[in-house]
Amino acid sequence: MLGLGIIGWIIIGGLAGWIASKIMKTDAQQGIVLNIVVGVIGGLLGGLVLALFGVDVESAGWFFSFFTCLAGAVILLYLVKLFMGRKVH
């Protein structure tokens, strides 16, 4: 069961990272592995932010998890663009 959970997080993270890279216009710079990494880290970031506001992110379901990953990935990519500047192509 744990393996299926990890595979699910990789799939959700990859999809969320890819969509976030499309939203933030960084898809040309990223490959599939970086999309997965951004999505999974975005999920952790989004989950942390929601937990700070008292939202129960663990039992909310797959759709909520996807949107949490997507929002966190967009925030992560925004912060990367902010700190790296516009010189990165």
TrEMBL record:
The chain crosses the membrane at residues 6-24, 31-54, 60-80. It is a multi-pass membrane protein. InterPro entries: Transgly_assoc. It holds the Pfam family Transgly_assoc. It comes from the Bacteria. It is found in: Cell membrane. Keywords: Cell membrane, Membrane, Transmembrane, Transmembrane helix. PANTHER family: UPF0410 PROTEIN YMGE. Belongs to the UPF0410 family. This is GlsB/YeaQ/YmgE family stress response membrane protein. It comes from Nocardia aurea.
